[in-house]
Amino acid sequence: MFSPIERMMAWRYLRARKAEGFVSVIAGFSFLGIMLGVATLIIVMSVMNGFREELVNRILGLNGHLNVYSQTGPLQNYMSLVDALEKVEGVQSVRPMIEGQVLISVNGAANGAMVRAMDREDFATKPLISNSIVQGELTNFKDQQVAIGVELAKRLGLKIGNSMTLLAPKGKPSPFGTIPRSRTYTVGLIFDVGMFEYNSGFIFMDLKSAQQFFKLPNAVNSIEVMAKSAEGADEIKDDLVTAVGGAAGIYDWRESNSSFLTALAVERNVMFLILTLIILVAAFNIISSMIMLVKDKGKDIAILRTMGATQSNMLKIFTLTGSIIGLSGTVVGALIGIAFATNIERIRQFLEGLTGTELFAGEIYFLSQLPAVINWQDVMIVVGMAFTLSILATIYPAWRASRLDPVEALRYE
Predict the structure, then answer these.
(1) Chain-centroid distance, C-alpha 101
(2) Helix (H, G, I), strand (E, B), or coil: what is residue 104?
(3) Residue pLDDT, tens place only, 62-95
């Protein structure tokens, strides 16, 4: 595509002499702009991908792919409904559950929380929880013993074996008014699932204990259904609706977290658009540096034309010159971005230790570690976009160089 003489001239024009230092500085800034734009875009996209993957994995690790619920009250005789759901092809597991809000009282301190109750066997089969126990044993999950998160335990000063009192929102009526219904439980487990929301606001309880506490004998208020995969939830939803026969409603994990997933998608797209502008600005720098180079090399271009160089030769020389700047900046930026994204958690810890500040607070960002997942398709899109913009930025200056009239350029020389 490029002849040896074209490659030699393009490379020579990149090595500016001392008198052409200003042109070289502008070309250097163009290189830095492309490099920083590509690196920043890859890092931000990787972090956004990591956020989505980590949060979705944790949400699905603690919640079902689909949930069956009744809008008219508790699900009575729920075992017949569980049997019908288990017969649906594609269903991996079905867990009857009770969810309800409570107020925790410990030594005069109070804190709101969400109780989620399930059978002991179902609790043990949730790997995100069972593999995240930091204190206590899995066998402690039984009557009158509950599992709480590390943040909640820290806030209330609770340890294994300590007692706490739970107050239900619905009290029991009496001649003197409604009396709050309360019961004392023992902390049997402390878990850390890596999400501040669950670590600070959720209590896991045995199903029978919850039925007694919430006054739901032989009833639950939710049934969790796990498909073989999160994407497979869409395929079995219609079959589940048929199985329940109108006795309950069904919503999947996307519907229950729609606002959250939509916010992530919008933020990702906006960040991609904003950071693309950095690469676009760097491409304009290539245009300005190449125009100045063409103006500075006007006499050289005229001499080459008189020696037999064609307009096509000049077009290729200056296109190659600008493309080298864009390609080198793109490659170096991609390597920096991939290396930074791969080691981003170590870099965060180093910066926190260096500055003595908390750069990634779990209560704000929901996760205890800064995640990053490199999507190679995104990397290729960023690299391709940056290189394409770099080539497009060279077209006009190269066209100007090819259209330069040798007579006019040498008239006053």
Answers:
(1) 29
(2) strand
(3) 778 888 887 777 888 888 888 888 888 888 888 8
DSSP 368-400: SS------HHHHHHHHHHHHHHHHHHHHHHHHH
Helix-helix angle 21-62:376-402, to 10 degrees? 160
Q: Are 248 and 81 in contact (CB under 8 A)?
A: yes
Residue 114 class from Cβ within 10 Å (0-12 exposed, 13-18 middle, 19+ buried)? middle
CA angle 69, 250, 233 (to 5 degrees): 130
**311-342 and 376-402 helices cross at what angle (nearest 10)?**
160
The residues, ordered by sequence, that sit 6+ positions from 397 with a Cβ below 8 Å of its Cβ are 287, 290, 291, 293, 294, 318, 322
Query: Of the candidates 206, 212, 214, which has an alpha carbon nearest to the alpha carbon of residue 140?
Result: 206
Q: What is the pLDDT of residues 208-252, one digit of tens each?
A: 888 888 888 888 888 888 888 777 777 888 888 888 877 778 888
For residue 384 the two structure tokens come to 């391709």
The fraction of the chain above a pLDDT of 90, given in percent, is: 3
Enumerate the domain spans of the chain.
4-57+260-410, 71-247
Q: Report how far apart, in Å, the C-alpha atoms of 60 and of each of 119, 222, 231, 262 are.
A: 18, 16, 11, 17
Tens-place pLDDT, residues 337-370 = 999 888 887 877 777 777 776 666 555 555 556 7
- Give SS3 for 100: strand
Which pLDDT tens digit goes with each residue over 372-408? 888 888 889 888 888 888 888 888 877 877 777 666 6
**Rounded Cα distance, 334 and 224, in Å:** 43
In which residue are the tokens 């570690």 written? 369
Tokens 């079995």 label which residue?
236
Q: What is the pLDDT of residue 336?
A: 92
Query: DSSP class of residue 180?
Result: P
CB 97 within 8 A of CB 223: yes
Structure tokens at 385: 């976009």
Distances 408 to 301, 302, 309, 310, 390 between C-alpha atoms, Å: 11, 9, 16, 16, 30
Residue bearing tokens 């925790």: 104
Spatial separation of the C-alpha atoms in residues 367 and 364, rounded to whole Å: 8
**pTM exceeding the 0.70 threshold for the entire prediction:** no
Beta strands 91-106 and 109-118 are: antiparallel
CA distances from 319 to 176, 246, 252 (A): 89, 67, 53
